[in-house]
Design brief:
The protein has 160 residues and is an all-alpha fold. Helix content is 72%, strand content 0%. The longest helix has 26 residues.
Length: 160
């Protein structure tokens, strides 16, 4: 158990450093992938709901440490996303590319809808604009990252 926790701490620390340090370089017109959501889906597939929710909350809290305002927003969005990922993965026995990408897309959509909906709450544009301009592009970019991760590390996306 302690070995698994240590392994996840190390993995998510690397994900967080890449997310904070490297992903901004990949941003295109304010659209960026979220590597931590991919890690969250991986945690949900491998270890279930409780692990995914706790992992999402802690990863989001760590990501909030780099935020300048709205502390706790990433923790909330990632905890809910962890629940969604685990709920969708609960009865699956085999995780092929399509299943993993479907779970990742649904998780990223929920995560981005919560995060961007709260972040842009005071902005002067509609929900449709928010979804079309931020939620869907960010989710699709995260989906591309998940596809690459699944193709490179397919064995990691198997249930333990």
């Amino acid at each position: 158990m302690a070995k698994r926790v240590l392994k996840y701490l190390l993995t998510f620390s690397i994900f967080l450093l890449v997310q904070v340090g490297f992903v901004p370089l990949l941003t295109i017109y304010e659209v960026a992938p979220d590597l931590l959501v991919v890690g969250l889906v991986l945690s949900a597939i491998r270890h279930g709901a409780i692990a995914a929710i706790v992992t999402g909350f802690l990863a989001g809290l760590a990501q909030d440490a780099f935020a300048t305002h709205l502390y706790g927003l990433q923790a909330l969005a990632k905890a809910v996303a962890g629940f969604v990922a685990a709920y969708l993965a609960r009865d699956k026995l085999k995780f092929g590319l399509q299943v993993t990408l479907g779970i990742t897309l649904a998780t990223a959509l929920v995560h981005n809808l919560i995060r961007d909906g709260i972040y842009y709450f005071d902005a002067d544009f509609s929900l449709l604009h928010l979804i079309v301009r931020y939620v869907i592009p960010n989710s699709l970019y995260t989906l591309v990252l998940a596809a690459i991760a699944h193709l490179l590390f397919a064995k990691s996306f198997e249930r333990k």
